[in-house]
Structures are given as structure tokens and as C-alpha cells.
Amino acid sequence: MSKLDAYKVDLVDSRLQGSRFEWDLDDSFFAAIDGLIQHGNIHTTVECQNAGSTYRFQISSVGKVIVPCDRCLADLELRIETTDELLVRQGSEYSDEGDCVTVPEADGFINLAQFIYEFIALSMPITLTHEPGKCDEAMMLQLSKHQVARSNQEDEESDDSTDVDDAPIDERWSALMQLKK
After folding, report:
1. Cα–Cα–Cα angle for 2, 8, 12, nearest 5°?
2. Distance in angstroms (rounded) separating the CA atoms of residues 67 and 38
3. Which of 61, 49, 59 is nearest to 11 (CA)?
4. What are the residue ranges spanned by the domains of the chain?
5. Kindly report the CA angle at 115 between 112 and 120, in degrees rounded to 5?
6. Adjacent-strand bridge partners of 59
7. CA distance 107 to 11
8. How far apart are CA 95 and CA 113, in angstroms?
């Protein structure tokens, strides 16, 4: 039995219409998914409505997650508040294309764990960084040292390459080189 089996919803159950599921997602949930988010505390509520052959799941998640900062790699705490909708229908084979997920009738269930995780991940900003001045100071110092070293090294390499190469340079490129200097 998988740790994520708790998030399976039986689509054949006649009591599914109007059902409400609630889960508290913690570090074990995020570890089982094995994605960018490794730590967090999220309360998720799923409400189901049946519209003929299609099930409409409204998934609401509220809480906090901890992810590495893109700049300094220290832990960054993000507040999550998202409400999303997942359409599910039964069919002959599994399909996750478009805005509706098709689940094989033979299975008769859908595991919402991956969808819940994806909705949480999609609610996060693209760039995951601390507020200015809040990054790990030691890491920022090391980063600044390497940026200066790399910048100086590139300048030296570009100066050496212009002295070594005696071949005529297209005048348009030489004009651009003058702008660089």
C-alpha cells in the first residue's frame, strides 16, 4: 500500500456527488511525491460534483511550503492559497490531455495526490527568492566573489583573443568591440 493511496477517490461510488474530502499535507506527502517541494503544511479540501458522466473536483489548498531559494539555496517559506478545478471522466484508457482527465472504467478511481501537488506547485511564483537583503549572507558573499572572478576572467580572455587573432575583422564587428571597451 502506497503512502498516496489515501488520496484515491472511488468514481463508482454513488455517494460521490456532493462529497467533501479534507487532507492535511505534511512533509511525508511531499516526500512521497518527490518534487521541488520537500517540506510544508497545507490543508486541502476537495469537493466533488457529478455532472452526468463528468466529475468536477474543486480543490482548495491553504498553508505554507518550504522550498530552496533560487539565489542563496537557503530555505524559503511561501504562503500558498489556491483554488483549482479538475474535470474527470471515465473512458476506455487513461488520458491527461486538454482540460479533462480520462480514467479507465476498469480502474474506477482517480488518485488526486499528483494533481493536488501540481496545483500547489503552479501557485508558486516562477522565481523563488527571498526579499532583497534576506538571503543567506555567507552564500551571497561567495556568489559575489565568483561573479567578480568570472567577470574579470572573461574580460582578460576577450582582451587576449583580440591580440592573438591577426585576421582582418569585419568593420561591423570591430565597431561593436569598441562599444564593449
Report:
1. 135
2. 7
3. 49
4. 3-122, 131-162
5. 125
6. 46, 84
7. 9
8. 17
Give the single-character DSSP code of 12.
T
Which single residue is written with the C-alpha cell 455532472? 51
pTM for this structure?
0.77
- In the block, cell 486538454 appears at 98
d(CA 59, CA 121): 13
pLDDT tens digit sequence for 87-143: 999 888 889 887 899 999 888 899 999 999 999 999 999 999 999 989 999 998 888
The type of residue at 98 is G
Which residues sit opposite 66 in a β-bridge? Answer: 39, 77
Place of cell 483554488: 83
d(CA 130, CA 132): 6
